[in-house]
C-alpha cells in the first residue's frame, strides 16, 4: 500500500476535480487526484469508434457558459459552430414530417399561441429564480410540490402544446419522465441557462463544439498535474475529523490530507464508506437525488446526405422515439454524423430489447426525420451512461418531488474538511461542463481561504 501526504485529496478526475486541483496548485497547495476510471474526464469522453471520432459524453458550448469559454481560451482550444444551415424537421401527432425554419414548431395557430403564452409565463417565473438559491423563492415550496407535467396540464388542455413545452426540461435535459420531478426543478434547469427561452433554443444551448473534442479540457488539465493524477483508484473509505484531516483509502493508495473534495456525482457518494458516517441530513438528502437516463445515439454516414435535401439536421418530436436529433458531423471529416437522443422510459424500454432490435427501432425513428437513407449508417454507436459503473445515468442528478426545496440549501455544504464539487451541484451551468468548472473553482477557493485562516 503506497502512502501519500498532501494538502488536499480530490476524489474524481472530471472537469470539476481537475479544475479544483489546478487552482489549488496555483495557490501553493499540494494535491492528489484519485480517479476510479482508467481515464480522466468523467462524463466527458471523446473516443474513436470504428474509425469515427465520437463525443460519447458532453460536447456543446453555449454563449453564456463563461467559465467553460474562459477555460477553453486558457487551454488554447478552438471551437466551431454546429451545422444549422437549412430546414429543420418536426414530426407531429399525425406522424407526418414537416419542414420549418426558425424556432417556432409548425403546429396549429392555436397550439402556437398556447406555447407562446406559457413560454412567456415561464420566462417571467425563471427571471425570479436565483439558480444558486432556487429554494429561496417565496413560492419554492408550492412549486416543488407539483410535478412539471401536472403544472403544464393545469395551464392548458392542449396536449401537443404540453408535450412540446415539457420535453425541453424533461426528455431533453433532466431526462426523466415529466411527472417525476417538480416545477421548481424545471425552473432551476431553465434558470441555469438564463431563461426558459434559452433552454429551448437549440441554436443557443447547442451553439459550438471543440475542435478535437471536449474531453481535451480534462486531458489538458490533468497533464498539468502529472503524476498527482492517479487512475484506477476507486476510493473505498474516507476517514475524517471535524478538527481537520482526512484519509482517503483505495485498494492501492492511502492519501493523508488536510482537506478533501468529492468531485463526483452525489449518487456515487454511497460507494464510499465514510468514517464517521456522513451526518443525518446528508444521509437523507442523498436518497432524494437520482440520475436521469438517456441514450445518445451516433450514426455516421459516408456523407451528410440530409444537406443535399436542404436539411440542417435539426429535428424534434415529442412523439418520436428519438425526440431530438442534430447534425453532429466532425470538424474536418467529410463524412456526416447524426446524433439522436432517446430518454427516460423510452430508453428503459429499448434496453429490454436485443442490441439488433434496439438499433433497428432507433434508426427507424431517425428515418422519420431524414428519410430511408438514415437507416444505413457506416458506423453506429450508443452511449449508454446508465451502464457506466462510475456514472450510473445521464446527464446529471436531480431531486425528486419536494427534494429541492427541502434539501437544496444544504447540497454544497461541506462536511468538516470534506468539500463538494460537480456539475450536479451547480446553479449557472447546472448539468454542464461550465457548471463543473464553476463548482471546482468554488471548492478550491473555499479551501484556500480555510488553509490561510
TrEMBL record:
Top-rank lineage group of the source organism: Bacteria
Keywords (A to Z) from UniProt: Oxidoreductase
An example Gene Ontology molecular-function term: oxidoreductase activity
Cofactor dependence: FAD
Positions bound to FAD: 35-36, 235
Binding site for substrate: 341
Tagged with keyword Oxidoreductase: yes
InterPro entries associated with the record: Amino_oxidase, FAD/NAD-bd_sf, Flavin_amine_oxidase, Flavin_MAO
All copies of domain Amine oxidase, residue ranges: 16-447
PANTHER family on file: AMINE OXIDASE (PTHR43563), AMINE OXIDASE [FLAVIN-CONTAINING] B (PTHR43563:SF1)
Family membership noted in the UniProt record: Belongs to the flavin monoamine oxidase family.
Name of this chain's protein: FAD-dependent oxidoreductase
Organism per entry: Microbacterium lushaniae
Lineage: Bacteria, Bacillati, Actinomycetota, Actinomycetes, Micrococcales
Amino acid at each position: 500500500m503506497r502512502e501519500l501526504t498532501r494538502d488536499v485529496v480530490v476524489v474524481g478526475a472530471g472537469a470539476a476535480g481537475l479544475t479544483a486541483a489546478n487552482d489549488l496548485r496555483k495557490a501553493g497547495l499540494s494535491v492528489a487526484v484519485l480517479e476510479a476510471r482508467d481515464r480522466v474526464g468523467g462524463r466527458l469522453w471523446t473516443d474513436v469508434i470504428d474509425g469515427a471520432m465520437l463525443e460519447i459524453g458532453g460536447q456543446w458550448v453555449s454563449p453564456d457558459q463563461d467559465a467553460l469559454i474562459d477555460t477553453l481560451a486558457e487551454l488554447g482550444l478552438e471551437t466551431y459552430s454546429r451545422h444549422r444551415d437549412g430546414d429543420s424537421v418536426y414530426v407531429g401527432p399525425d406522424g407526418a414530417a414537416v419542414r420549418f425554419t426558425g424556432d417556432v414548431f409548425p403546429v396549429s395557430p392555436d397550439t402556437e399561441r398556447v406555447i407562446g403564452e406559457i413560454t412567456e409565463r415561464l420566462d417571467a417565473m425563471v427571471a425570479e429564480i436565483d439558480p444558486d438559491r432556487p429554494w429561496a423563492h417565496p413560492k419554492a415550496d408550492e412549486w416543488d410540490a407539483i410535478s412539471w407535467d401536472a403544472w403544464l396540464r393545469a395551464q392548458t388542455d392542449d396536449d401537443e402544446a404540453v408535450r412540446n413545452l415539457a420535453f425541453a426540461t424533461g426528455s431533453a435535459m433532466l431526462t426523466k419522465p415529466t411527472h417525476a420531478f417538480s416545477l421548481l426543478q424545471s425552473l432551476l434547469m431553465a434558470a441555469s441557462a438564463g431563461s426558459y427561452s434559452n433552454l429551448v433554443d437549440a441554436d443557443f444551448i447547442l451553439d459550438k463544439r471543440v475542435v478535437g473534442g471536449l474531453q481535451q479540457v480534462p486531458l489538458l488539465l490533468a497533464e498539468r498535474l502529472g503524476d498527482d493524477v492517479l487512475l484506477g483508484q476507486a476510493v473505498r473509505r474516507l476517514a475524517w475529523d471535524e478538527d481537520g484531516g482526512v484519509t482517503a483509502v483505495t485498494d492501492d493508495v492511502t492519501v493523508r490530507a488536510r482537506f478533501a473534495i468529492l468531485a463526483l456525482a452525489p449518487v456515487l457518494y454511497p460507494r464510499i464508506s465514510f468514517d464517521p458516517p456522513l451526518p443525518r441530513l446528508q444521509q437523507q438528502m442523498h436518497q432524494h437525488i437520482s440520475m436521469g437516463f438517456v441514450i445518445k445515439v451516433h450514426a455516421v454516414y459516408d456523407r451528410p446526405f440530409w444537406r443535399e435535401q436542404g436539411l440542417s439536421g435539426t429535428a424534434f418530436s415529442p412523439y418520436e422515439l428519438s425526440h431530438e436529433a442534430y447534425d453532429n458531423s466532425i470538424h474536418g471529416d467529410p463524412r456526416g454524423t447524426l446524433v439522436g437522443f432517446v430518454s427516460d422510459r423510452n430508453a428503459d424500454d429499448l434496453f429490454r430489447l436485443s442490441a439488433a432490435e434496439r438499433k433497428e427501432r432507433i434508426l427507424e425513428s431517425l428515418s422519420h426525420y431524414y428519410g430511408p437513407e438514415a437507416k444505413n449508417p457506416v458506423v453506429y454507436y450508443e452511449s449508454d451512461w446508465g451502464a457506466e459503473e462510475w456514472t450510473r445515468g445521464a446527464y446529471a442528478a436531480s431531486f425528486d418531488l419536494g427534494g429541492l426545496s427541502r434539501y437544496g440549501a444544504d447540497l454544497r455544504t461541506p462536511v468538516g474538511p470534506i468539500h463538494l464539487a460537480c456539475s450536479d451541484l451547480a446553479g449557472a451551468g447546472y448539468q454542464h461542463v461550465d457548471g463543473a468548472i464553476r463548482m471546482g473553482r468554488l471548492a478550491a477557493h473555499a479551501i484556500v481561504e480555510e488553509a490561510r485562516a
